[in-house]
Amino acid sequence: MRPRRSGRVIALSPSGRPDSNNRERGIYIRSHIGALPTYILKKSLGALITVFFVITVVFLLMRLMPIEGYFGDDFDRLAPVQREAILQKMGLLDPWYIQLSNFYQDLARGDLGTSIIFRPNVPVAEIIAPKVPYSLKFGLAAMALSLSLGLLLGIFQAREKGKWPDALGTSYVIFINAVPAAVYFLFIQLYLTQLSGLPILYSSARPLSWILPAVSMSLGGIAGYAMWIRRFMVDELNKDYIKLARAKGLSNTRVMFSHVLRNAFVPMVQHLPTTLLMTIAGSIFIESLYSIPGMGGLLIDAISRQDNPLVQALVLIYSTIGVFGLFIGDILMAITDPRIKLEKAGGAR
Questions:
Q1: With 0-12 CB in 10 A as exposed, 13-18 as middle and 19+ as buried, what is 283?
Q2: In this structure, what is the dihedral angle of CA atoms 78, 127, 322, 272, given to the nearest 10 degrees?
Q3: Which of 56, 245, 269, 313 could form a disulfide with 112 if both were Cys (CB 3.0 to 4.6 A apart)?
Q4: pLDDT for 140-154, tens place per residue?
Q5: Which residues lie across from 12 on neighbouring strands?
Q6: Whole-number Å distance between alpha carbons of 308 and 70
Q7: Number of Cβ within a 10 Å radius of residue 162
Q8: Could you give the percent of the chain with pLDDT greater than 70?
Q9: What's the N-to-C CA distance of the chain in angstroms?
Q10: For residue 300, which of 203, 292, 248, 232 has the smallest C-alpha distance?
Q11: Which domains does the chain show, CATH number per domain?
Q12: Residues 280, 126: Cα–Cα separation, whole Å
């Protein structure tokens, strides 16, 4: 006697879990959401520890530099009594652990220190604050170009996989990743300005001077997004649920955008905050190359003038931005992708 077959067909989602069992799905989703606060707390503690470690290392490395680097050549011309009085006033004669403790106390109050060479006796926060809007404007413009053009290029490559458009896009990605950025940045500035007639340096009075810096800042992001979205979409195209969707008669466009792109975009969520925040922080090389008065160009000036407190503050800002971006990316990844197990027993990420 043949065993009786059940007439119930269970459809599987891309994650392999039964979609038809609503009760089990509801229990899973509720447990996933319930574990999210603990996951966020653990990630927050990890981010704080990382920032603390970075800040401490940067502070100690700056203290390894010769004290004369804080003041320049004029410091040597002062009398020994004057030099000692200045160092004592700044707390540089205290043991390193006392200096570190004082630094954290000032940092807790929002005090990033005082400039010594760049703008003597001016708080670092007042120097950095006017630079932020410039980095923000160019960063958002470059981010919009990177995300839109990168996703379009990656989708087009995935649709034309193995054909000449895919090969052309892959060549662009390889070129951007293989050639040092400084090379094609200089090429764009020197030659594209002659061909296009665009300004070679930034000027707030000339809106056209935005174009080349924003395009230059976006080239790496376009290549990165195109490479990853193509890879994830090609992986999704080979899965069984895509073959089932096509067998049902769904159009290729609907399959690509309603199924493939939606699932392929989930891994990209983790990288979006970091890319956004670091782009907003400004490209150090681009801002210096086009004379943009942003934070990136400020860092170059601070290093060249050996204004260590200003250098230290900018490095801390960049480090904190990077760690915070990774933290937000992990949280968004956990929210958008229910396949991630947040419980310890399930192997928390």
A1: buried
A2: -160
A3: 313
A4: 888 888 888 988 898
A5: 18
A6: 6
A7: 9
A8: 77
A9: 49
A10: 292
A11: 129-305 (1.10.3720.10)
A12: 19
Q: Which DSSP string do the residues of 112-179 spell out, in sequence order?
A: --B-SSSSTT-BHHHHHGGGHHHHHHHHHHHHHHHHHHHHHHHHHHHHTTTSHHHHHHHHHHHHHHHS
**Residue among 180, 179, 208 nearest 192 (CA):** 208
Over 50: is that where the pLDDT of 32 sits? yes
Contact 240, 167 (CB under 8 A): no
pLDDT tens for 137-193 read: 888 888 888 888 988 898 888 888 888 988 999 999 999 888 888 888 888 888 888
Tokens of 118: 């760049």
**Torsion angle in degrees (nearest 10) through CA of 275, 280, 281, 282:** 100
d(CA 278, CA 157) in angstroms, rounded, equals 27
Q: Structure pTM?
A: 0.70
State the DSSP H helix or E strand holding residue 327, giving kind and residue range, or none if neither. helix 308-336
How many other CB atoms are found less than 10 A from the CB of residue 117? 19
Which residue's entry shows tokens 């410091």? 75
| Predicted local confidence at residue 76, as pLDDT | 65
User: Helix 295-304 and helix 308-336: axis angle, to 10°?
Assistant: 150
Distances in Å between the Cα of 125 and the Cα atoms of 58, 69, 171, 282, 305 are: 18, 21, 43, 17, 18
Judged against a pLDDT cut of 60, whether residue 72 lies above it is answered with no
Instruction: Compute CA distances 225 → 147, 159, 221, 272, 275, whole Å.
Output: 7, 15, 6, 10, 10
